Amino acid sequence: MKTKSKTIIIAVFLIIPLILFSSSYISFRSQKINNEHLESFKNKLMTTIQQKSYFDIKNITPFEWDRMYVILPYTSRTEMQKIVGTKWTTADTYIGYLIFDKTWLGEHPLDDDIFQKLVFVKDNKVVLDVTLDRSDVDFTQINSPVINDSALFIIDKTSGGDVIKASK
């Protein structure tokens, strides 16, 4: 009888962590975005800003999207998820997800006034998450969300930086 109860206890102590690990890993896989268009979008954005005085962001996004959110400096990960209405991660690995998304280390990815984030969403799923330096381009005057049909922006170069404003 003692052997049977020990076996049950050992099985319980092995099954519970396995269930918790599986649940966490499934959560990671469902939230993970590949951010495959990150570099091409940033390059097109920077080139456009240097060469033009206005642009339609639809013309520089090589992916489908229906809403864009501008996430302001000092916004926590939890607040970002509330603003966008979904959870996502750009972590490449499960370990990175555990360390930087599930602990206090990753709760404040925009921890300085210089950082802002653009988050593009298609059908309530994040398709691109890009962090930008405000000294390169400043989207903080844009009201979120930006709908794909009204994505025309003016580039204000008078303040010494490239400040993006919504067209009227």
Structure description:
With 168 residues, the protein is α+β, with helices and mostly antiparallel strands. It is built from four helices and seven strands. Strands 4-3-2-5 form a four-stranded antiparallel β-sheet, with helices on one face. Strands 1-6-7 form a three-stranded antiparallel β-sheet, with no helix packed on it. The N and C termini lie far apart (79 Å).
Question: What oligomeric state do the depicted chains represent?
Answer: single chain
Shape: elongated
Category from helices, strands and their pairing: alpha+beta
Largest sheet, in brief, is:
4 strands, antiparallel
Mean pLDDT: 88
- Provide the gyration radius in Å: 21 Å
End-to-end distance: 79 Å
Strand order of the largest sheet: 4-3-2-5
Report the β-strand fraction as a percent range: 15-25%
Low-confidence stretches at least 5 residues in length (pLDDT < 50)? Answer: none
Number of helices: 4
Total number of beta strands:
7
Helix content: 25-40%
SSE string, helices as H and strands as E:
HHEEHHEEEEE
Descriptive keywords:
3-stranded antiparallel β-sheet; single chain; 7 strands; 36% helix; 168 residues; 4 helices; 4-stranded antiparallel β-sheet; alpha+beta
In a nutshell, what does this entry contain?
This protein is α+β, with helices and mostly antiparallel strands and 168 residues long. It has four helices and seven strands, in the order ααββααβββββ. The relative contact order is 0.18.
